[in-house]
Amino acid sequence: MPGRSHGGDRAFSACAFVGAKGRLTASARVQLLPAGEFRSLDGRPTEVSAWFIDGAIAATLIAAAAARETPYVLDYHHQSLLAAEQGLKAPAAGWFKTLEWVEGVGLFATDVQWTDAARQMVEADELRYVSPVFAWDRATGQVTHL
User: Fold this and answer.
1) Nearest Cα to 34, choosing from 49, 13, 14, 20?
2) How far is Cα 48 from Cα 9, in angstroms, rounded to an integer?
3) How many CB atoms lie within 10 A of CB 43?
4) For 9, 10, 53, 100, which has the most beta carbons within 10 A of its beta carbon?
5) Residue 28 backbone phi and psi in degrees, to 5
6) CA dihedral 17, 19, 22, 23 (to 10 degrees)
C-alpha cells in the first residue's frame, strides 16, 4: 500500500519488512517495526530517505497503546482499511494492546492473540510478514502513530 497523505505534514503507510527471525511466527510476541532507519521491502518511502523510530518515539507509541480502550487489530492484507472501498469483509487475524521497545532491535507487540484461522495460516507459511500501518512525519520520516 503506498503512502497516503491525510493532510498536514503526516502521511500513512503500510510497511512489510523482514523481521529479526526472517518470517512471521504465530507467537504472542511479534516485531512491528525495526529500530532506527528502515524501508519497506518494495523500496518505500520515496518522500524521505527512510522511516525512523527510536526509543523516544517508541515511548510515545507505547503510552498511546496503553491509553487505548480497545486493542489494535491484525487483519489480512489491510482489509480493515480497504473493505469499504472494495466491498469486502475485514476479518481479524488477531489483536494486541501492549507494545515493548527493544533497543537496537525495534518495536514489538507483546500480547498478540491470534485467531485460530490466522494461527493455522501463519504456521502453514500462508501468512509470512507483518505489514503495520503507521503515520509518519513527511519532513523527517519519524513514525508518529500506529
Assistant:
1) 20
2) 12
3) 7
4) 53
5) -80, -10
6) -80
CA proximity to 24, closest of 94, 126, 145: 126
pLDDT above 60 for 17: no
CB 8 within 8 A of CB 111: no
What are the angstrom distances between the C-alpha of 46 and each of 8, 97, 103, 146?
Answer: 18, 30, 26, 20
DSSP H or E segment with residue 83 = helix 79-86
Contact 14, 3 (CB under 8 A): no
User: What does the mean pLDDT of the chain come to?
Assistant: 83
Q: How confident is the model at residue 15 (pLDDT cuts 50, 70, 90)?
A: low
